[in-house]
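Notebook, student rotation project (T.W.).
Task set for the rotation: take a protein with a known small-molecule partner, predict the structure of the complex, and write up what can be learned from the model alone. Partner molecule chosen: zinc ion. Sequence and SMILES entered below by T.W., checked by me.
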Amino acid sequence: MRHAPPAKISEEPKTDSSMQPPNHFPAIRRRMLLPLLLLAAGLSARGAVTPDAMPLPDVPAAVAGATRAKYVFLFIGDGMGANQRLLAELTLNGAKPPAPPAYRKLLMNRLPVTGLVNTHSADSWITDSAAAGTAIACGKKTANYVIAMDAAGKVPFDSLADAAQARGMRVGLATTAPLNDATPAVFYAHASNRSKLADIAKQAAASSIAFFGGRFKECDDKECLKEFRGAWFRPEKTEADRTQPYSVDRSGGDTPPLADITAAGIRALDNANGFFFMVEGGKIDWACHSNDAAGTAGDVLALDQAVALAVEFYGKHPAETLILVTADHETGGLTLGRAETGYSIHPKFIAGQKASAVGLTKKVQGWRAAKKSFPEALTALRSEWLDPGALAADETKALTKTYNEGQSAGEPGKESGLDPFAVACIKLAARRAGITWGSGNHTAAPVPVTAIGAGQNQFTGWMDNTELSAKIRALLAG
Ligand SMILES: [Zn+2]
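Predicted structure of the complex:
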């Protein structure tokens, strides 16, 4: 059932044969230019609203209790626990929480229905994205690292993509991480181990997915996806690992933000039979592995911009659209508070960090290559990238040593080669802000799911991730 002929996408005709697999990026960019420019400015084409201020419609009881959803958006913030969602909100609001209506709340945090989701895998209280994604996509537990198969890697599971396609719906997958990484892969591939990236990319090419947004890694993706016949929004500029840059590192216009990719997906998927569209904020997890709060908050806000497009779509099909925002697991054991800062949190130290751990690593390497002294590097850091506040004598001594000793293997996590001075400065900013990271890995913390639209009432309570999947499947099949 997975390899049925792909849905025809009349709105996005293939351009020319030199662009195989099809790249609709330029055409989509032209048509979407105005709304995207407005969005980039924090505005909506409907008026001057940012996602946190965007009006949400009242959902009639008949819609909230519906048993069928025709247009389903599933936003997965990889690693995005409740505290990651609140961290992004703190950076919008400042040191003291303003009273409503001045309080700025993420759009995803304002959806009318909230539930909690347990994330453990078949073999561990702490899941990886493959097992968690399998549970969400297929409704079944498996072992860590397995893509949409049983724990032994023998029996393939069918996914929500199959369920949607069985109803004639189009299926789309978009991410800032690679498209053959675990979270998208569980919807179209089967693999005994998520590391089989080339094999997973081949399965993408043979799949009947109607829309891909993003890039594939460990294959020449134009070559690997030569046979793919759906629409593919393929950002040309990526990081070396085929991911999109962190939102906080964007210089504007160089690579499409997640909202841009999402807009392209909506255009490609919209049709009379409906669609299922999974959009992943994939690098929230990567930032959390690096304990990088500004990188995390920036990508949560970028995901919220993508959610805003779904809410706009909801306005056109209010009786038939369901929007869900959740996570596969929490990453980093993020705690909003720490012993030495008591009852205070100072989000300015996070909001004031203007580059991710990766972005800051590039800066620091440049300063070192230019033979900048430690005081010169510290001045450059403070003036533009990150103000760690007044340094105590022991902090100055430790930072000097870290800067002068230069390169090391960096911190463990998804990003390799982080500069130790960049990492030390980010840690210092987190300390000043009053936040704590308990881990460089995933945790067992439950994650929120928020919902609006057709069948929203089902997404309350404290559920298992397989139950979350079953509820979505029932609404697709209803
Ligand atoms: Zn992770």
